[in-house]
Amino acid sequence: MLDLTELNKLEDYLRKNNVSFERIDNYYEFEPDGFHQIRVVNAQGDVLWDAVCHNFSYGHESGLLETYGLFDYGGEVLGWLSADDIITRLNVHKNKVYTYHHKTNNYNHEEDEDEEENSTDVRFGESKS
After folding, report:
1. Got the DSSP string for 12-50?
2. What is the pLDDT of residues 78-103, one digit of tens each?
């Protein structure tokens, strides 16, 4: 049985800070302990980043989380994170704009003012309409 304490803590934090997200808990024959995911989304429903805990995620043995898309780690997942680790990263980066490129599924930090045709700029805790 997976320990979902960290995922639940992250969910509570996102809810208290009015961050738009989806919680998904699916159970499969090959994944009897479940596939548990929080997907942070923008106003258009685009997934900006996610955090997961399942039997194949990095850190699941200790109840820790794996993220993807959280502040551009070169398209790599980042595992073995507590909710506090993720919250710290969110608070450090909350005033920076990150652009999700829909066609390439890459998350890039943008320093300039140019807006690309198929991208969505977001700031942590804000929805873009």
Report:
1. HHHHHTT--EEEEEEEETTEEEEEEEEEEE-TT--EEEE
2. 999 999 999 998 887 776 644 444 33
